Amino acid sequence: MAGCYALIVAGGSGQRFGGELPKQYAPLGTGTVLQASVRAFLEHPEIDGVRCVISQNHMDFYQQSISGFAEGSLLSPVFGGKTRQQSVLGGLESLAETNPDKVLIHDAARPFVSGELISDVIFALDKSTGAIPALAVVDTLKKCTDESIDKTVPRGNLFRAQTPQGFRFKEIISAHRELMRDPAKETVTDDASVLEQSDLASLAGSAVAVVAGSEENFKITTPDDYKRAQRYLSELGGERETRTGFGYDVHRLGDEGGDKSSDKNGVRLCGIDVPFNRYLLGHSDADVGLHALTDAILGAIGEGDIGEHFPPSDPRLKGLDSEVFVARALELASEKNAKINNVDITIVCEAPKIGPYRTEMRTRIAGILGLDKNRVSVKATTTEGLGATGRGEGVAVQAIATLSFPV
């Protein structure tokens, strides 16, 4: 049978959450955490069925939690095992007779998953065996031993995985069965790891795609997470005002063969390396796109400009990844309880060609900001030979960021 089904994993005891009530059954708004997670999938037009995997000891909690749904809208629940992997395999086996084309596996403790994110994961499965939402790591990572720093861990190409994680059904159930037969395999914490450790990982076409995750799709694990969820829900229902910031930056293009301000190949634009026989001169890694975006966010929250927070005269900034600047602007916005609604970026240059990289730029910026990709726009234009950019002397970028603030 064709179609896409969703498994909501809700069998945990929530030891780190504390209290007698597991986190997935904790009150949230007019319902519960589980209810919010389930609703997102029940209301999605591309989901053909939703099933929860629960603890046998939580049946009463579960029945109370789903009481707001129409009878028959949910498939009957199945009971999980001692580990997450056992629980997921049990859920997959319960769908084996139905044999859907695709399955999404979601943690019940992520109640704010959006319809756009669900759609992005489903769409990615048209070309990949699996797909997960993830956010780029922007903080400096430290490996610590005995409460002291052992070393700094490079954060390049590191992402924070989220759910729902989507897979072609036949492949993921086969990978789970294989892992369960081999106790020597590592304990896994997500389903992409199951696929990575299976024999299928070496086969062509078995790659797991990554789509832009969302900061709103956070997981409730601790009491502080629960307080954050309550604040977020309150903000959604409360009155907010919208403010807009504008950013503009321009960087000169250096000639081929000169001294580069960065060791990256080509030019860095909107977090993406674009092949080119020239290079950008300027602040840090000279990513003029992220510089303009940083100024737009800072403008919306009334915190000056990028130069005030990161003076170009500071030698420590040479070659620095400009995502650091965006991360700082986001931190300042968070302190004001501000949320980014959308950003719009226009790149002005004669060369390099931006069109082939626009989608990748949108995805990268969405990941940095924790936004759905449809809230990020990247456009490109020329000045038809007029001015410095028209003469090919540099690249200019305009950025607009719209943020909402509590009144």
How does this model look, in words?
The chain has 407 residues and is of the alpha/beta class. It folds into two domains: 4-233, Spore Coat Polysaccharide Biosynthesis Protein SpsA, Chain A (Alpha-Beta Complex), CATH 3.90.550.10; 239-406, 2-Layer Sandwich (60s Ribosomal Protein L30, Chain: A), CATH 3.30.1330. The protein is built from twelve helices and 19 strands. It has helices spanning 33-42, 59-65, 84-95, 115-124, 169-181, 191-197, 223-237, 288-301, 306-309, 323-335, 358-369, 387-390; strands at residues 4-10, 27-28, 31-32, 49-54, 78-79, 102-107, 130-136, 141-145, 148-153, 159-161, 165-168, 208-212, 240-254, 267-269, 272-274, 279-280, 339-348, 376-381, 394-406. Strands 1, 4, 5, 6, 7, 10, 11 and 12 form an eight-stranded mixed sheet that branches. Strands 16-13-19-17-18 form a five-stranded mixed sheet. A two-stranded antiparallel ribbon has the order 2-3. The model is unreliable at 257-264 (pLDDT under 50).
